[in-house]
Amino acid sequence: MPDHKAITDAELHQIKGASGATVGQVPTSDGAGAAPFASIPNTNKTITSVDMGVNTLAEVALGCEFVAMAAGDVSSIRTILTGDSYNANTTFTVEINGTAVTDGGFIQPTGGTAGRRTSATPTAAKTVAAGDRIKVSGTTEGGWQTATNRTCTVFFLIEES
After folding, report:
1. Where is 62: in which H helix or E strand?
2. Is the pLDDT of residue 100 over 90?
3. Host domain of residue 18
4. Which residue has the higher pLDDT, 2 or 99?
5. Is the pTM of this model over 0.70?
6. 71 to 43, 53, 66, 135, 158: CA distances (angstroms)
7. I need a labelling partner for 40 at 20 to 30 A (CA). Which of 1, 115, 128, 137 fits?
8. Same domain, 98 and 50
9. Which is nearest to 69 in space by CA: 99, 102, 45, 94?
10. Does residue 134 sit in the same domain as residue 91?
11. Residues 110 and 34 grouped into a single domain
12. Are 88 and 126 within one domain?
């Protein structure tokens, strides 16, 4: 029998199991010595961030919008306060094309100082198509301290479909 490196193209054969594989499937190890064909899950992820300059009540209520650049599910929303502290709990909500993302809201609490982090894990109404409008807006409890450089940066992890 010749060495495999010496076999010509005409003598080569397909990988065992290739005739039963569908388009896009690849051989994967099953850990028991076999290599059945299977689809590889999509692992593409997009991280999008938006800076909300929120120095007045009107700016919080107005919110901030951006356009989704990829289709998929919003799997995580994380925030970081990058400026002066708030003097009232501020509840932020997230909407996709005007529909609230279930469990997608987050709170920046009273006295949150620069570096304060919060997160949310959406459970429903979280699917976006490329071009969809995503909006983050908020409401506050009680008073509001006018300040400069109060920014909440919001990061969206979108698992592409």
Report:
1. helix 57-62
2. yes
3. 4-38
4. 99
5. no
6. 13, 27, 14, 16, 8
7. 128
8. yes
9. 45
10. yes
11. no
12. yes
